[in-house]
Structure formats: structure tokens, C-alpha cells
Amino acid sequence: MREQMATRTREQLRDYLFGTLMPTDRGAWPADEASLFDHGMDSLRLMQMLVYVEETLKVRLPDEEVTPERIESVNSLVEWIDSRR
Amino acid sequence: MNVDSLHSLLENAANKHGHRIAVEFSESQITYSELLVRSSRCATVLQEVGAGPGKRVAFCYRKSVDAIVTMFGIIRTGAAYVPIDPAWPAERMQAVVDDAGISIWTGSANPPAGVTGITTILVDFENPELQAGGDRNRIGSMSGPAPSPERGVANILYTSGSTGRPKGVEITTKSLMHFSKWAAGFLELTAEDRIANHAPYNFDLSTFDIFAAVRVGATMCPVPESIKMFPYQMAKFIADRRITTWYSVPSALIMMQLRGKLPEHDYSRLRHVIFAGEVMPKSALQSLARELPQASLANLYGPTETNVCTCHACTAADLADDGPLPIGRPIDDTLIWIVDANGRPVARGEAGELWVAGPTVTTGYFGDADLTSSRCVPAPNGVGHCYRTGDRVRLRPDGVLMFEGRIDRMIKCRGHRIEPGEIEAALHRHPAVKQAAVIPLADPVFGSRLKACIAAREGMPLGEPELIAFCKPLIPAYMMPDIWHFMDALPQTDRGKIDLQSLVRDNSRPSASPPGPTP
User: Fold this and answer.
1) Structure confidence by residue, pLDDT tens digits, B415-438
2) B82 CB contacts (<8 Å, ≥6 apart)?
3) Interface of B with A in 455-484 (CB under 8 A)
4) Nearest CA to B22 among B218, B178, B191, B180?
């Protein structure tokens, strides 16, 4: 069950990040371990992503826990989000 | 205090406050005495490869102690430093290198492949091997008085250009000396102050953090790049580093106000919060005033070409209503005119373009006499020249200036100055693009977001991914449009030009999801 949820989170997050939020070439979405900072993550997009996670995925992400390490990649984000469920 | 050059500011600080910390960054720190010695040694290295008056030296650094050492090293030689953002695409870096005639590159890393025709000097005084007696420690300090830079140009700041190429704004020693003197007096800065440095070095805001600090012997505290996107970490940085003076674009402050949990931190040392570069929304200002009651708030105004030219210290009356915040009154020795389209002063209370004259105003654009003569025009009082800001302002009955927008297409986005023409020029390099227009979409936090409207040539299908990939090497990330809209044809005016007003009108709906915390 937990694994299924993580997979779903990953799919939703990838769709949002690379399909909507980031200036990403749709034909070449970055790998899950790739640095989001190298693919256009900036302050505005970070704020938008936090709102997306809180409103769509219904997971509250405490401001004090938002660190470079946690939003480094899709992998680190999924791990963090799942730990907050 | 008898100082007449930027380097003499440092010499004076080293004489008076030699033991005090000049720069504190992460786990590193350097005193004013050390900064003077290291920057003089850096100057020797730079001189050996030809740096001096009349030369421009690329300065490509993220925040660090070495960056400040190198900046003063370049200043010491009499050369002008040209900040280059390490995040720029190589093509933009090369455009600046070519435009400024740069032959010497300084930085903490080699320039990217594709940037050519330069001698690279990597300054790394933090390297323990160098500190323990490596080659650099055998290099002597540059001696004798610091030569004056050619035509008094201390640095060249490149901003977005409407023709598709960035333009280099010449910032003079006189401008930086005058501005830092005014700022230090206005804020009553002392050697006890700890001044954050948030803005990148290629933003004119950073000149306050550096030269006002050195003028009084205060401590510069550069904000690490790694936390600049993280509101809580930045808010914590201000408290942990006991910052007394914070200067940034409003969007950085708004982020901290929204998600930085300001009330959790101890800001008892914070005396001043100043902002510039874009419009500060009144609601955000009111929240900041509530959450930082001990700090004075001030709105500084001025395009890169004028440095700061007006200032408004926020009052209780400003906070009591929801109207726009004034940009204030001219700073010392600055003259302003509000003029109509023919350059004639408007009647008091009418709106017009702001023209500015004074010691902080640029001498022009490096190597571009035509652009210089179009923007830097004879002052209406017949004395010297003034700069046409392109900003539309109005004088309020009480004598303060109100900003009312642009008379041209320039967009401010998170403090970045963006000429849509530069993005459109990049888009038009794609063979399938027939028409392209970039327009601003209002954003409650970040001022504006960018929307690209594109029409493709017949039989040449085109999509967002392809254009993003195409533009990435051509424009900085902050210029990449957030929203892409493909149309059969862009609307046109009677004269056959793209009807930008119509595009903006059609897109003036408020954004659906303003970024903020979930209640």
C-alpha cells in the first residue's frame, strides 16, 4: 500500500514538475536522481511546488524542513513527502 | 575621513578597523587588514597579466570571501570589473566578454567551454595549501597609490537589451563613492553593523552591501547561494548571523514573510530592512512591519543607470492605507525632472517620464555611443547630462514621487530587468518562428511572470519543448517564459505591428494559484 502510494506520488510529481512547472524539454524529462536545480528550479517554482504538494497531494511540508537536500531531486522529494504522510 | 577612491575606502577601513571582520561567509572570515593585503597580492597577479586602467576584467563569482578579495584586487589595479553571473549560458558570457573587450577572466572556476579569448586567473585564498606557503604567498603586494580607472569607470553591469544583446552600464567610482556615503549617513551605519549581501554581484544592489560596509568598517555577510531559494533558511540566516541591515528585492522579503516564520526568530539586532528593484506590494509591507517592528523600512528607487536616486523611509501613514508606496524624494545632490513626450516638464501633479541628473548617474553604455546619446541627454537645466529612466512617475502634493509604471516594454521579474525584445530575438532565431511576442502577467508575489505568444510558419509545427530547448543556451533561466501560448497568428495593429496591448488585455486575468502557505 505504502509502495503504491509512493509510486503514485512520484508519477504525479513528475507530471507536475516536468509537464507544467519547469522549463523542461518534454522529449527528455530528467531522471529521478537528476538535480532539479540544474533543470530550472528557482525561488518562484519552489513556492509553486510547495503549494502544489500541499493542495493537490494534501501533504503539509513544514517551512523549516524545506532544505536544498530535500528538494534536490524527484527521489529526495518523494522520500520527504512520503515521510510526511 | 579623507578618501577619494574605492580602494582608499578599503585602506581607510584597514587603518581604522584592521582587526574587525570585513567579510564573514559560511565558516570563513577575513579582517580588514587581511582583505587589504590579499587584495593587493591579487592585484599583483592581475597586473602581471595586463590588468590596469583602461582594461575590463571579468568577475565570475558566486558569493565567497575570495570574490570580495578579487573585486578589490581588480579595483586596486585601476581596471574595471565586469560581473558575470556563473549561471548565465555560455553564449551570453561570450557576448559580454566580446562587448566589453575582456581579456582577463577571474573566478572560482574556469569559464565554461565556448568562452574563449581570455586569460583565466583563479583566485582561491581559501585553499589551505596556498595559505600554508604555496606560490601565491610568495607574491608581493602591489605597491604605490591605486591608479584611477579610465574615465572613472569602476565596473560595468550588463542588463537585458531590447535589441537582443545585453548592454553594459558604466558605473563610475564617483557614483559608488557618492551612493555609499549617502547610504551610510542615511542609515547611520557604523563599524558595529553587520550587512547582509543578498543580491548577486551583477545587480547594482550589491554595491550597497559592499561599499557602504567598507566605508564604515562594517562586516559584510554574503548570503550563501544554497539558501537563497529557501525562505526559512534565509530568515534564520538573518537571525543567526545577527544581521543589522538587510537589502534585497521585495520578492525575497515577501518569500520570507510568507514562509520564513519570521515571528519564530530573534531579530533584536535588525535595524534596517531596505528594498529596491521592483514594486513592494502594500499588503506585504504591512505584514513585514508587523513582524519586524524594531526595523526601519525604506524603499530605494533607481535603475542601474542612476544607482539609487530616490528614497522613501516608510511611515505609519504609509502602513495605514492600501495605496501604492512612494518612491520618495531625490537623495543628496540628485536632480529630477518629470517630463512629457517632448522632454518638457509637466505641470505639478501630472504624470510624465522621470529624468535624473547627479553624481550617481551613469556615463553611458560601454561601447555604444548611439544608445548612450539616446538615453543620456542634456539636462533640462543646461548643466551636464541626465538619464531618461523610462519610468512614468507623478509628484504627490506633499512632494514625494509615485511610480506609475513604464513608458516602454521593460518588465521587472523578481528584481531582474527584462527586455522582452531580448527574448523575442532569441525566439526569432528559430527557423519555424514566424511571430513572437513576450508579455508580462501580473503576479502577486513576484511582480511579473513571462508569457510567450508564438505563431509558427506554415507547415512547420512547433511546440513548447522545442522552443525551451532552443532558447536555453541563448538566454538566462530567469528570462525563460513561464507560459507558452501558440496561435495561428498574433493580433496586429492597423499599421501591421504586433498588437501587444491586445495580447496583454486578453491575458490580464489574475493568476489562479498565488504561491503561499496552506492555511
Assistant:
1) 788 999 999 999 999 999 999 999
2) B56, B57, B58, B59, B96, B100, B102, B155, B156, B158, B168
3) 463-466, 468-469, 472, 477-478, 480, 482
4) B218
User: Which structural domain range is residue A13 located in?
Assistant: 2-83
Q: Nearest CA of chain A to the CA of B371: how many Å? A: 32
- How many structural domains is chain A composed of? 1
Contact B472 A23 (CB under 8 A): yes
Question: How many domains in chain B?
Answer: 3
Q: B2 vs chain A: nearest CA distance in angstroms?
A: 42
Q: How far apart are CA A5 and CA B148, in angstroms?
A: 65
Domain endpoint, select from B172, B192, B210: B172
Interface test with A, best of B223, B254, B259 (most A CBs within 10 A): B259
List the CATH number of the domain containing A33. 1.10.1200.10
B369 and B450, same domain (yes or no): no
Contacts of A26 in chain B (CB under 8 A): 463-465
Q: Given 3-state DSSP classes, what are the helix, strand and coil percentages for chain A, each rounded to the nearest 5?
A: 60, 0, 40
Residue B395 sits at the vertex; the CA angle it makes with B162 and B313, to the nearest 5 degrees, is 90
What domain range is B481 assigned to?
A: 411-506
Distance CA B434, CA B456 (A): 5
Domain edge (last residue) among B131, B155, B172? B172
- Same-domain status, B75 and B20: yes
Q: Are residues B419 and B359 in the same domain?
A: no
ipTM of the complex: 0.84
Give tens-digit pLDDT for B233-291.
Answer: 999 999 999 999 999 999 899 999 999 999 999 999 999 999 999 899 999 999 999 99
